[in-house]
Amino acid sequence: MAAFPEWVQSQKLVSELAEQLGSTLNEASARAILAVKLNRPSPQRRRRLAAMANEGLLSAEQFAEYETYAQLRGLLAILQSKARLCLKRRRAA
User: What is the pLDDT of residues 34-80, one digit of tens each?
Assistant: First the structure.
């Protein structure tokens, strides 16, 4: 995916939000975040959108869906990483 200025700015905001949220975790919230799964769009829909994106065939609506999922997946990945660190620190303490 080409890096458009809007996308880069959006990713920066997602990352900053994840950092802020990650700093507030306790054991219960860390475990809850680790249990979160993104169920939509379905795996088949994600593969279809990814294939279409690779071919440059996404409509504006499909691109928005694909981009939103990618941003949410990125946010969740960062939060889950923070949650694992939180739990690791608690075990070490």
Answer: 999 988 888 899 899 999 999 999 999 998 888 888 888 888 898 99
Report the candidate in 18, 17, 29 with the shortest Cα–Cα distance to residue 90.
Answer: 29
Q: Is the pTM of this model over 0.85?
A: no
Q: Are 35 and 81 in contact (CB under 8 A)?
A: no
Can you give the residue ranges of every domain in the chain?
Answer: 26-92
Residue 63 one-letter amino acid: F
Mapped onto helix, strand or coil, the DSSP state of residue 40 is coil
Alpha carbons 69 and 71: distance in angstroms, whole number? 5
DSSP SS3 for 42: coil
